[in-house]
Amino acid sequence: MSGSSHLSRRRWLGRALAAVLLAPALVAAAPPQRIVSLVPGLTESVCALGACARLVGVDRHSNWPPEAAALPRLGGLDDAQVERIAALNPDLVLAAPGARVVQRLQALGLKVVALHTRSHQDVRHNLLWLGQTLGDPDLGRKAWAAVETQMAAASQSVPAAMRGRSVYFEVEASPYAAGPDSFIGQTLVQLGLRNIVPVALGPFPKLSPEFVVRAQPDIVMAEARQMQDMPGRPGWASLTALQRQQVCAFPSADYEVLVRPGPRMGRAAQQLADCLARLAKDTR
Amino acid sequence: MSALAVRRRRLGFGLALCSLLLLSAGLVAGGEGWSLAELGDLLRGQDAWLIVGQIRAPRTLGAWLAGGLLGLAGALAQGLFRNPLADPFLLGSASGASLAVVAVLAAGTLGGYGLGHGVGLAAAAFMGALGGVLLTLALARGAQHTLRLLLAGVVVGVVLSGLSDLLTLAAPEALRGRQVFMLGSTGFLGWDGCLLLGTGLALLLPLAQRLSRLLDALVLGEDSARSLGLPLPQLQLLLVGLLAAATGLAVSQTGLVAFVGLAAPHLVRRIAPGPHGYLLAASAAAGAVLLLAADVAARTLIAPQELPVGVLTAIFGGAYLLWLLNRQRGA
Q: Please, what are the domains in chain A?
């Protein structure tokens, strides 16, 4: 008798202990309701999963979708405003690895998750992780499936004549290019294009202007403003792609979609494919 | 009491008063700008401890302490080099710290991911600053030839900056972090940082003041200092060590805040000059007031946005110094 009561007490104690130990885990597992995102691509990902309303603040570069753009701006990733972030009382802060703000906010007891947004794989991982964290893993899978479907459709719509053409995608006028390893480069490969930049140079290498001239890309892609200046660069007038107007000059709003690693990568692929289709028509 | 002593005392009172006012202002000035009513709401709310106790208070105190270290370092540098243009970043500490910070930021991209995670940016900046000064000392073969030391500092500065440029070419994503570090920022200061800065200032200021006789003697030239029987090479080395430690500590917590170290000793000398024992302490106080004032302004001028504090120290510090120089010339 006394043995069984002892046993039941022990069992009770065990349950109480388990409850105490599990309670924080259960609380932590509750989906976040007040999210701060300090990375534009992650802001877009949260919204793509239908959780835009759970965002309470974003960084100064997050400008899409319009609901997110209307939220309080909390500085940039590297000069984020710690006090305003803490005052918003977020239960999840999304940032990128290496930023000082990550350590500072963690020291204040906030939950900060630092995510890379460098490749298609990163974006896929982020969408799946966000889906799970926000409480519906299906949403993440669907969002990534939508990106993949759009990419496949874009790839299908590239005219056969354009496949295998070499391309130079300029990120900045110095000139920095998008290498095959970058998320932009990965999209270009998926569209059947060949990057003039070798993989070994890294995701966004700074090139010698001479390298571009000697590589003679079949197609040149850049923001419209930069494209205007290109023929004026020493020697660049000899680029046949510029002479024959085999160029994709994107207005800045479209260009922003191209250089943002997030759920709009599918749309970016379609923009690129549309340009390729136009070029194919022009050459005919 | 002589007229000069009265002016010194007035400056001391003024700096103490400014410090008190600004320290309180630092607690009131929030991310949304000035508002006493808002402060009342905040103090009654749940987040009072978090916002005021964990964020505003350490940031305010930290800016004051970091400014103090920079002012002290500036006075040490100008005394050591007998040159009013000397500033704390002269001996390669700035470029050393930037290089270390860029290396940590770039480590994520360049494969050595463990490095970026194992070493914090603050620790890296401190080691980088000390490393830069050590390199300068090695190149100048000690601290006894100030001209050689200055020249070596310039060379180290150029070479290390070149190296960080090279790193940012390989890892362009380190560029933003580097820029923020070079502009200086007081936004990430916590109590641990304050503890480091406070301990540093409490140790370095009395140590430096014990060397003030050497600095006073150096005003008359190295030969005169030597004729007083002072062991010059060792003491100069010690001064460089103090300078490097003060600069490295400040830089590790707030980045390369411009102009505070250069302007603080100037302000003190213009308003009430004196021997180095006094000058070192007064410059530290002036630097503290200058950086804290800039920090409060940075938080509130375009609230709810925030300005980089280094931009304000450069603009306001520079403008004030110019005004002071002109006023003195007119008088």
A: 35-146 (3.40.50.1980), 158-283 (3.40.50.1980)
